[in-house]
Structures
1.
Amino acid sequence: MTDPIADFLTRVRNAVKANHKVVEAPASKLKLEITRVLFEQGYILAYKEDTNEQGKPVIKIALKYHPETKTNAIKGLKRVSRPGLRRYCSAADMPRVLNGLGIAVVSTSKGIMTDKKARQENVGGEVMCYVY
């Protein structure tokens, strides 16, 4: 697999469009950190690291839906930096997603964080994806 992060985001995006309650994806430290950021920002209901039948680590993510309208908290996921074209930003040039309504997940020297937290800590890094 060339881009495991894009595969992870695509699994979540497809589960959102198909109105699934839970999505399962292969686990890695980077994917767990991206999932943690999504949980902290309120885009997903819960997550846990588990193993599948073959004994390989997986992440199980419970997607968040509005109780009455059944709309999902995640409207869109977009991969920004990819293996063929990496995208880096300084703290001053950090992107704003939907004028602050969405988040950009950024990989910095201080760990995976949102664009807002990266601006507060004055660190730049690789822009992994947009979530709105």
2.
Amino acid sequence: MTSSAYTGRFAPSPTGPLHAGSLVAALASWLDARAHGGTWLVRIEDIDPPRCPQGMDQEILRQLHALQLVPDAPPQWQSARHGLYAQALAQLQDAGWAYPCACTRRDMDAALAAQGYLHERHGERPYPGTCRDGLHGKTGRSWRFHTQRYQHHALAEAADLDQEAARPDHPLLQRDQPLHWQDRWLGPMQQDVAAHVGDFVLQRADGLWAYQLAVVVDDAEQGISDVVRGADLADNTPRQLLLQQALGLTAPRYMHTPLVLQANGEKLSKGLGAPAVMVDSTEQRMGVLRQSAQYLGLEAGNASTLPDALAGWTAQWARRHLGNTAATGGPVP
């Protein structure tokens, strides 16, 4: 299948070299683009400079090149795109979807504790709404997206409802109405963003851009039609759908692939000391790619060269996933 409209991307954060988990995501996004006859891009997500060691972006690009996962256009860096994020934030501010927040994490924890909320490890801290109706004399430090206001008012327009369905008591306009979307790997998904996350950050107190805003702006500006990434990021999708609707952007299709786990069930990650994939020899390159393919449910095959192996996995991917490209469709009832 050839689709000139298909554009995918791999968007690593240069906080460390590629490891087994991030390589699975890279290979999956590359295979999906190749199976569709589309374009594959690489975007370096370096909007948090303190976490990005110097030269790590080039190391990731070196690893990808050694594995013959080469983008179809020069890579782009988020650190060069601050103006686009500022424009998007201004648009949200003008439309009333963003408001300043002076809460520290300690403030949030105290407010949530007063509400009887028990924080789970690795779970979200839903914003308690302290600054939603004003700063009360405090100085604003960050900007948040007004999730409840959006879900309560904007979904009527987002869902293209008629005037009768846009009544204030229509179920689509109730705040506890979860967002629904279709994931190409995980199937039907839903989340009540207001309850699960609350009003999420768009720009941090230190002036750095939040991931949610940056990735939505970047995907739209680069014309990304399909986002293929690890399942640990599936939880971010509803926030990104809300932002896309608020900014008048088309939602890409989403596919969240299985994670590489450690023996204790934790996700393999740079923060937990995941070793870099070794790509210095043909044997190493074939080994790490075969392992990644197996995590994606693909047969290792008997190919002796990287091009042959990648071609075989592309054919397998096309047979398994090419028909599973239903549009996300954004938030639906």
3.
Amino acid sequence: MSENTVAVSDSGFEKDVLKAEGPVLVDFWAEWCGPCKMIGPALEEIGGEFKGRLTVAKINIDENPEVPTRFGVRSIPTLMLFRNGEVVAQKTGALPKSQLKAWVESSL
């Protein structure tokens, strides 16, 4: 992915997200999704700003259909914040960086 985000897959989701050391923000996205592309740079910046406190992960729903189905993702972008293997917060749709950051801070 990039310096501040990591790609996760159906096969690695349990290890990379559910059993991760700290909180993980998962972005469910697809290449064809305009709003997903709009929030991508903001999530990259948030990943850098919260480095050491939060992992920002991205899962392509077209390439990895099992995890989105398992967690009931019906529209994208959907953001889920996982802590200790549980979803502790969820947002759907594109938001400005300031709102995304405030949501992350309130959920940590």
4.
Amino acid sequence: MSYNLDINKNESNNKIINKVFKELLQELYVVFLDIEDHNTLRLNEFIHNTLLEYDLDPKNVFETMKINSQPDFSYSSLIGIFYQYGIGCEPDEIKAFEIFSNAVKNNKKEIIKKFSFDQKNEPITFCDDNIKELNEIITQYFYSLFLYKDIILNKAKNYKLYVKNAENGDSISQYYLGNYYYNKIDYNKAIEWYSKSSEGGNIRAIYKLGNCYYYGYGVMKDEKKALELYLKSAKGGLSYALRSVGDCYYYGRIMKDRSKAFKWYLKAAKKGDFQCQYLVAKWYHNDGIHDPKNEENWFYWNRKVAINGNIHAQFELAEYYLNSNSINKNEKKAFRWYMKLANDNEPRALYIVAKCYRDGVGTDKDLKEAIKWSVRYEESKVF
């Protein structure tokens, strides 16, 4: 069933709409905490997958947000994002910028105190669940991205801009200078600048220094030292530092402890690390190999990572919706996920979509469509 997004229609619809938009805003917030990993394609796919999961039409959602962007239903950041990437509308960067700019100018809160692109010393504290506050933070991010896109997304290329500040003791500039030498495989220089930046408390530099010790880049390999540095960085909330601590406990020759590994993977998953979200989902689905099997927890994490774009998780979610005996069984949702995968030319999905049309599973019976998808499946086996 497709939800009717008339926000004034009834209380039930309001709850559904708020749930969807809050989920979008919360996940976008987590994504933007690590600006270095900003990925436009991932953002676009994430929004489309969320709408697919709820069976919502992008055009309908877009129009609903425009109509209902009021003080109590503030979605200006999402409206701007939809305009920028053409989700449910024609792409219009000028309109997107206008929305972000006006929203920021009208915002009287001191957002910038809550949001730092560089996370110098402290982790960003997650704000409450208030939709309006999430909206304000994300709007600030996109407004800044429009104004300073080249600087924000091309820091490594602009390393020369950081040399003077790095020499004058700025830990952020020292970190980016370290990155430049790291990417050039000049690990001695990289370690020099990462060390200086680490002394200033930069959690990213501490993490990179940990990598050097873990892999033996420019120094003698030392897993114990690497773990110490990863732990120090992880205390600052860096998601991939949390994951690396988990890796040390899972794979380490010195301090192997898979129970501790899971705890750190779970922390990273909660910070939005996609790899750890999938690891945690598998962990809960392993029939007690590492931890007691927990279907509810598996579903929560697998669904999340499926929406975030993991193909394996998408197949597992579709299969669960199709074959589960739980209250989550939903053949229509299963069909939608298989159709999404089939449109991405995944052979197994092509075969299942053909069967769904043939047997009327999750969709109406349609032999013409069944034949069409069967042909596409056979053609996929040729290549």
